[in-house]
Design brief:
Elements (H helix, E strand, L loop, with lengths): L2 H13 L12 H6 L5 E5 L8 H10 L3 E5 L16 H16 L4
Parallel strand pairs: 1-2
Length: 105
């Protein structure tokens, strides 16, 4: 891992705001409410780089969202998304499979 990679990823995360999308005039909530796609949010509990609280807040405003905490038993933080433990892989695979099964073909 290159430390510069982490720096640029952090900057991108911190600076990204869909409220800055043309037509929303900085209104992030309006932008989230405008999402038309079925949305699945998988968030690692205890993630300091991509805080779960941010994911939960976003999920409140997306019309057709399914929110799943990846690891509530033994939070692995940011690594939860990488499927560090078999439990995390199982939770993610199950959530993704269920979400995909609800989509219209």
């Amino acid at each position: 891992m290159d430390a510069n990679d982490w720096i640029w990823q952090s900057r991108a995360y911190d600076r990204h705001d869909i409220g800055q999308t043309k037509g929303f005039n900085g209104d992030t909530i309006a932008a989230l409410k405008s999402i038309k796609a079925n949305t699945l949010i998988l968030a690692g509990t205890g993630d300091l780089l991509n805080p779960e609280s941010d994911a939960k807040e976003s999920a409140k405003y997306i019309p057709r969202v399914k929110y799943v905490a990846i690891n509530e038993v033994a939070p692995m933080g940011h690594l939860s998304g990488a499927g560090v433990t078999p439990n995390e892989n199982e939770v993610q695979n199950k959530a993704i499979k269920q979400f995909l099964s609800t989509l219209k073909k």
